Structures are given as structure tokens and as C-alpha cells.
């Protein structure tokens, strides 16, 4: 019986796959951000969250056509755990919650703009959320 060796390297330099200008960049140095932004609704959600200083849950759900409450809740919680979104509970007589991007979330949003510009080169349409008219 022969033993197959894995082709996956355990060399730590392989994890940092981009070498540019004498520097080495790890694909996911932030621990989970790449996984999170690859999930459905995350990029449109980051876009919508950055359009206003505060957003209520129902406003986000209305802005993202087709997102379910369960998916929206999961994305918001994940982004909050990554330090990209801040959830604030307002304990007035009618309790309400708002969501906003943290400074780190705003920096990620700005960093996405060149990627979206690149995606639109040669006629490829940039990724955009489908927004409902109000």
C-alpha cells in the first residue's frame, strides 16, 4: 500500500502568496476577512453601510433586494466580530439598533473601490447591489 503525500505545503512563506516591490503580502492577514467578503451579501452590505452614518436593520434589508433576515443577521454578526461593523443599541422607550462601519470597515470599503474599477475594465460590469427604489 502506497502513501500519497499531500501537495499542500506547510512552508509558511507559501501562505503569503503575493510578493511585490520587495514586500510580501499575506492573502488573509486579518484572519477571516477574505472568507467573509467572499460570502453572498457581504460586499453589497459593506457598500450600503458606508453610504450613511447609521443604518437600521429594516433599512439595510430594504436596500439589499432579496436578502433574507437570517442571511442579513449572519453577515452583520460576522462583520461585527471582525471589527468591521459596529452595532449600537439605543435604550430609549422604543428600543432600536443601528449599524455602521467602523474605521476599519470604512478602510476596507475604500480599498474595494480600485478592485471594482478593475472589474469594470473592458466592459465587465462591477459588482453592485440591487437597490430598491423608495
Polypeptide structure, described:
With 134 residues, this protein is of the alpha+beta class. The protein has a single domain (30-123), classed as Orthogonal Bundle (Arc Repressor Mutant, subunit A), CATH 1.10.10.10. The protein is built from six helices and five strands. It has helices spanning 12-15, 33-37, 42-49, 57-63, 69-81, 103-119, and strands at 18-20, 23-25, 55-56, 85-90, 96-101. The protein has a three-stranded antiparallel beta sheet. Strand 4 and strand 5 form a beta hairpin. The longest helix is centred in the C-terminal third of the chain and has 17 residues, at 103-119. The chain starts with 11 loop residues before the first helix and ends in a 15-residue tail after the last helix. 16% of the residues are buried.
Looking at this protein, list some descriptive labels:
Arc Repressor Mutant, subunit A, single chain, globular, disordered N terminus, two-stranded antiparallel sheet, 134 residues, 15% strand, 5 strands, 40% helix
